[in-house]
């Protein structure tokens, strides 16, 4: 139950860059892709979530965090929805973006990094293959590897 609560965004466990993991529901475009995802949830496949790594560099004085995630190149297409559910290989992409602060829900502190977490994440991204297959080489595997 403790994972439901997130420490203050300025808190790190050892004074280094704070590393968080966040989970959000999978999204789909309106129409057939959304229908497919709704069917997946109705079949009790509610474990279908998207996982991301958030890094709050200790060098930043404000609460901004950097988000790294791995997802289908076109996540809202019907092809992506079918491939996700059938386990087929689809093209993926590693994204990097910024958030103003650490989300308060569905996000938890993993720990802190003694080195430069940003450099480590970028090095990992450069070695990460971008062919995506759910359950084999997906956002969960990416998140585990990055952390």
UniProtKB/TrEMBL annotation:
<protein>
    <recommendedName>
        <fullName>PTB domain engulfment adapter</fullName>
    </recommendedName>
</protein>
């Amino acid at each position: 139950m403790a994972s439901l609560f997130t420490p203050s965004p300025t808190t790190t466990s050892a004074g280094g860059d704070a590393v968080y993991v966040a989970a959000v529901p999978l999204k789909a475009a309106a129409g057939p892709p959304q229908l497919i995802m709704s069917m997946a949830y109705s079949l009790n496949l509610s474990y279908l979530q998207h996982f991301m790594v958030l890094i709050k560099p200790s060098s930043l004085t404000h609460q901004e965090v950097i988000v790294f995630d791995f997802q289908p190149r076109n996540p809202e297409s019907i092809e992506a929805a079918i491939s996700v559910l059938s386990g087929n290989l689809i093209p993926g992409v590693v994204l990097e973006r910024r958030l103003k602060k650490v989300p308060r829900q569905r996000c938890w502190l993993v720990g802190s990094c003694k080195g430069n977490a940003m450099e480590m994440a970028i090095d990992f991204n450069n070695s990460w293959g971008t062919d995506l297959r759910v359950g084999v080489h997906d956002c969960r595997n990416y998140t585990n590897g990055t952390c």
